[in-house]
Amino acid sequence: MKLVKVVKVIASWLVATVAAFATEASAQTTTPAVEVGVHVTALRLSEFSSARMGAGGRVTFNITDRIALEGEVTGFSASVDAPTGGRLQALAGIKAGRRGQTFGVFAKARPGFLRFARTPIGCIAIFPAPLVCMLAEGRTAFLMDVGGVVEIYPSSPIVIRVDVGDAIVRYGSGPFRRPSGEVRNSLISHNWQLGVGFGIRF
């Protein structure tokens, strides 16, 4: 039920944002229509103790100066200090806010998924199995990225971007055992994610 409420709130925000700026859709924009960029990001899953660094790419379509649609893919490699292997994060959604000549400030809401690669690890024979053992089988979790974006424009085609967000992950297909020992059938987890990127607009 909590996930349903989160989705409803985000959906209401998206509808309100699009409605507020709908009149701008037909207006001429001074912002280049397409932006392609790369980024590095750090994601710390609250159910585990370590953050994971990743890198990826982003494509943005600027509908107006204030509204953009974007898709992003990020890969996270395996790490010796993390209990699971590589991860793949894919997001697509809306970015809306204010843009000036030298910088812009935006809010973002982007649903997607977080894929955990199948990883051979040693797990104790208990039921329910620990969450890390379930994820090591190769699972895909729903993810909603909500947060803020600051962009800097040192020149017309160049964009430097900083993202700060809450990566809301829903773990399902339980039962499973959390690191705390609690047994759950599903779980909604809030996780900080910080990213820095570079892009070119044309």
At a glance:
The chain is mainly beta and 202 residues long.
Protein topology:
Layout: H1 2-20, E1 34-44, E2 51-62, E3 67-76, E4 87-99, E5 103-116, H2 131-135, E6 140-155, E7 158-171, E8 176-177, E9 183-184, E10 187-201
Antiparallel strand pairs: 1-2, 1-10, 2-3, 3-4, 4-5, 5-6, 6-7, 7-10, 8-9
Q: SSE order in H/E notation?
A: HEEEEEHEEEEE
Main beta sheet strand tally, sense and closure: 8 strands, antiparallel, barrel
Report the C-alpha radius of gyration, rounded: 19 Å
Globally, the shape reads elongated
Class based on secondary structure composition and strand pairing = mainly beta
- Using DSSP, what is the number of strands? 10
CATH topology: Porin
Strand content: over 45%
CATH C-level class is Mainly Beta
Residue runs with pLDDT of under 50 for 5 or more positions? 22-28
Question: What is the overall pLDDT average?
Answer: 87
Fold and architecture overview:
- This protein is mainly beta.
- The protein is 12% helix and 54% strand.
- It has helices spanning 2-20, 131-135, and strands spanning 34-44, 51-62, 67-76, 87-99, 103-116, 140-155, 158-171, 176-177, 183-184, 187-201.
- The strands form two sheets. The chain has an eight-stranded antiparallel barrel with strand order 1-2-3-4-5-6-7-10. The chain has a two-stranded antiparallel ribbon with strand order 8-9.
- A hairpin with a 2-residue loop joins strand 6 (140-155) and strand 7 (158-171).
- The radius of gyration is 19 Å and the shape is elongated.
